[in-house]
Amino acid sequence: MVAVLQTRGLLSLPANPKTRALVQPNGLKHRFLSLKPQTLVGSSLSSNGFSKLNSFSPKVNGFGQNERNLFICKAEAAAASDGQQPVFGEAEVEKKPKILGIEVDTMKKILPLGLMFFCILFNYTILRDTKDVLVVTAKGSSAEIIPFLKTWVNLPMAIGFMLLYTKLSNVLSKQALFYTVILPFIAFFGAFGFVLYPLSNYIHPEAFADKLLSVLGPRFLGPLAIIRIWSFCLFYVMAELWGSVVVSVLFWGFANQITTIDEAKRFYPLFGLGANVALIFSGRTVKYFSNMRKNLGPGVDGWAISLKGMMSIVVLMGFAICGLYWWTNNFVPLPERSVKKKKKPKMGTMESLKFLVSSRYIRDLATLVVAYGISINLVEVTWKSKLKAQFPSPNEYSSFMGDFSTATGIATFIMMLLSQYIFDKYGWGVAAKITPTVLLLTGVGFFSLILFGGPIAPGLASLGMTPLLAAVYVGALQNIFSKSAKYSLFDPCKEMAYIPLDEDTKVKGKAAIDVVCNPLGKSGGALIQQFMILTFGSLANSTPYLGGVLLVIVLAWLGAAKSLDTQFTALRKEEELEKEMERAAAVKIPVVSENDGGNGSLTSDSSNSPSEASTPRNN
């Protein structure tokens, strides 16, 4: 293979070079017999008036006594420009096989990741819809239980999990850590459908809760409901943790481990398309089981039968996730990372927390997650209270949530198609700012309808709707648009931001941010609502102030996104530079020299190597 050197001003060869014969100096025969020449495999120099040489020695004898170095040529410079072939001994990069324009190695990553995301979000949609039905429609409970659950149960359990996960990450391999975390989730959801729920009438202390309620008064209905339906609350928390732990920590952490930044920008939004098809199908699944209860005879607990069916699907999907994870680890090659970033000392739990808090990059990421949690919670809890008022029965509530999940999947699918264009055209910074902007605009519309529902009631009546039903639909649209923007833009942006980090910061930073900051944001929103209600007397009276809080939170969110955009760009450039330096260090750098006669020859930039001869070859 002849590699043609493209000079383009880097080096100048004579237009009419003189052909020089090799003059054998004394002792050259001895050198040929005593030394084994090292050939520079796969390269030769082809130019007018020059014979082709199959190798070059560090110092070629017979081309002149006084040699002076002209240029140090980087071995991959000419190859990198215009896609030319490599020169001066650089190994030729073989073209990898492709399928539909995508390399096979990349395809082996994307397909299992997309299927894993499909299964995880299929489960999450079923669990998310089921947990709301359980705690909101249960006897002796209402939507008021949700802020207390998120603040006093979900947040402590999330913190406890983060501490345990940080400890386990220091002693277990990544694969063992994945299985250790996900298998208890699968076991619990299977046990809930077939053991805990059928025994709920026996294990729930309803009489004790009634006695406490009569003593403390109705204002403690929410906290006492946690005791009254403790197994349902445990299911609620485990379903919330599935979203934080399995989706954010396990899946995205694994995806960041086996993909590069360029692959992430191209495929993170795309394989989310398959995941949001899961929202559509899982929404239909929930609606099917909800409607199935209507066809059962009297005295039959239809909800128990529905739970068994849905939890069986969750368990099967969980084992499918484990199988896909095992296959990917065994058959997909890991990408090259910068070696320098992997050399990090192990840190204890408190050291890890101090390190994460001291990092501006991690603080900005945490601000994004907390701000989303507070913002969505300020609107979502109010919407769910309206939803229960409109659909009081579990059957109607669950059926509406199935339609809601399907609509969310369709909207997110469309947003996923647009997201790759947004990333390519406008970059990470603009994509990260779209979600807070959408949430702010739709939230203002929802609160405005609640505030001014009375004056517009006649107009709504002409459309066949009441202000309550209109609030339910507008709140549903607000949640659909906000969640579709989150799944298609916010989540990929957040996960891309982890890729340039070192492994220790990536693992522990994700555990701290995704497991703790996510419920912290939701709990923060719940605490704000509780404070507003106690201060202004009711949720309706506090609505204008909640809108003001929403504005402040979104502005802080946008500021953190702008700051993180600057840091992310710098880290990415630094990582690319380090990879470039590592590749350059692994390549033999030749030196172009010129002899007295003006003809160009090659020498190696290695002054300490012994002189070796090269045998010319006639072609």
UniProtKB/TrEMBL annotation:
Provenance organism: Pisum sativum
Keywords assigned by UniProt, alphabetized: ATP-binding, Chloroplast, Membrane, Nucleotide-binding, Plastid, Transmembrane, Transmembrane helix, Transport
Similarity comment: Belongs to the ADP/ATP translocase tlc family.
Protein name: ADP,ATP carrier protein
Main subcellular location of this protein, as a coarse class: membrane
Record field: transmembrane: 110-127, 147-165, 177-199, 234-255, 267-286, 307-327, 365-383, 404-422, 434-453, 460-481, 545-564
GO cellular component, one term: chloroplast membrane
Region (Disordered): 588-619
A family per Pfam: TLC
Biased composition (Polar residues): 601-619
PANTHER family named in the record: ADP,ATP CARRIER PROTEIN 1, CHLOROPLASTIC, PTHR31187
Molecular-function annotations in GO: ATP binding; ATP:ADP antiporter activity
Lipid bilayer topology: Multi-pass membrane protein
Record's subcellular location: Membrane; Plastid, Chloroplast membrane
